[in-house]
Specification:
This protein is an alpha/beta fold and about 260 residues long. The protein has one domain (about 30-250): Rossmann fold (3-Layer(aba) Sandwich). The protein has 10 helices and 5 strands; from the N terminus they run βααβααβααβαβααα. It has helices at about 55-60, 70-75, 85-95, 105-115, 130-150, 155-175, 185-195, 205-215, 220-235, 245-250, and strands at about 50, 80-85, 120-125, 180, 200. Strands 3-2-1-4-5 form a 5-stranded parallel beta sheet. The two termini are about 30 Å apart. The structure holds zinc ion. Zinc ion binds near residues 213, 261, 263 and 264.
């Protein structure tokens, strides 16, 4: 497999950013449900480095009717990264059946085997520095506060693990030159947006939209909508962040007969 012989990730740590490209820290309101803002400028979206959360791995594995894992690799090959904590979490989800979500373990297993174990999504080591750990700690605290504000009854141990994974991912994201967080979690999107400079987030609907555009008409609207339903069953996306009109959202402008597609041209 060609992908397996790919050289290890170039250390992108402390890559220099042009001053003009640094986005300002976003003002986060306490009651805001998420910071998802739709697809990014399409011209830049082929080069951004994506930091992949457990929720996106699961959603991708659940989108089995369109072979989501292979499409994910096709779209993000060489620029998808995750952390050891996320790798451990996806492994845990793959090994432990969840009676409330029957598709979750198989989706997690598919994503773990095809994307993470194979190295297609590259696992980054966390820098062993005091500075990095204190940054991670701050993000973790923020994630816990955001969760507590929504769920005053308290968080479960699996949610604690989830927050730990997200904190490592957001902290790692800050070390890349052009990072985008891929997550379905509204709290993680808010914590990423609150970083300085701000880190943008895309959820699985946005990722699926990229698959649609990339397929140049091969992926039908019905297939995309089915994939989205399966993905949302296995990994929820905040209601407020979902596309209002799925037919419109999961149709590439070019295949619909328009002269240009806002998302892929
Ligand atoms: Zn398009």
């Amino acid at each position: 497999m060609a992908e397996l012989s790919r050289p290890p990730a170039t250390p992108l740590i402390f890559a220099h950013r042009r001053v003009s490209s640094i986005p300002a820290r976003e003002e986060i309101k306490e009651d805001q449900p998420h910071a998802f803002n739709g697809n990014l400028c399409p011209r830049g979206s082929d080069t951004v480095q994506v930091l992949v959360d457990t929720s996106i791995l699961i959603a991708t594995g659940a989108a089995h009717n369109i072979n989501g894992v292979a499409r994910f690799d096709g779209r993000y090959a060489g620029r998808a990264f995750t952390t050891q904590a996320i790798r451990d979490e996806i492994n845990h989800r793959a090994l432990n059946a969840n009676p409330n979500i029957p598709t979750l373990a198989s989706a997690a297993k598919r994503a773990r085997d095809y994307l993470v174990k194979s190295g297609r999504v590259q696992v980054q080591n966390t820098p062993q520095t005091r500075e990095f750990f204190s940054k991670m700690q701050l993000i973790h605290t923020k994630l816990r506060e955001l969760a507590k504000a929504r769920q005053p009854s308290g968080v479960t141990s699996s949610e604690m693990q989830k927050h730990a994974g997200e904190a490592t991912l957001i902290a790692i994201a800050g070390l890349y030159s052009n990072p985008v967080l891929l997550t379905n979690d509204g709290g993680a999107s808010l914590a990423a947006a609150a970083e300085d400079p701000s880190i943008k987030s895309l959820h699985f609907g946005d990722v699926l939209k990229e698959f649609v555009c990339q397929s140049k008409g091969e992926l039908s609207l019905d297939q995309a909508k089915l994939a989205f339903i399966a993905a949302c069953e296995a990994s929820g996306i905040p209601f407020e962040a979902k596309p209002e009109d799925e037919d419109d959202f999961f149709t590439c402008g070019l295949t619909a007969g328009a002269e240009a597609c806002l998302f892929c041209t």
